[in-house]
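Hi V.,

You were right to ask for the full record rather than a summary. Here it is.
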Amino acid sequence: MDPDRPHPRPLSAPARALLGALGVLVVAGAVLLVPQVRAAVGVPPSGLPGLPAASGTPATDASPATGLHPDLADRFNAAQAAAAADGVDLRLVSGWRSAQEQQRLVEEALARYGDPAEAHRWVLPPEHSAHVQGLAVDVGAADGIAWLQEHGLEHGLCRTYANEAWHFEMLPDGAASCPAPLPDASWAW
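Predicted structure:
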């Protein structure tokens, strides 16, 4: 290094965490919103398994709130109201799913990706899915996802998977902070 130039100060841990979170948001936003980026990372125009196409219509005919654990429904409703107060549209895109619907999503992912290992990154079998238990929500739109990533802990909601910016589950009982997201859903296969 040049001794005449000032040395940059190292970033603090909170600053590094903020930069990391911003990076995740930028990538997630690009994947969700920019067709060229979606294609480059292998996300088809129809969306990912378990999420609706870009139109924003729910993944099921029933209300996505039907069948949610009451505590999860209360936490999401409180977060949705707080987001609305901040001028942010936080939508419940998918919540409880029947075992049959979850299995259909597994089969669609296998057909879409052609590789079980890749499909398993995006969708769990019914016996391991938090959606089937009423313990998970998928949210939208992009600004709602970003808002909940920033404010989820305040409402007892945690992002579960690093590759699914939209998937949230309840803060574990007794926990003061959210656990680190798992890389993807393949852990349960």
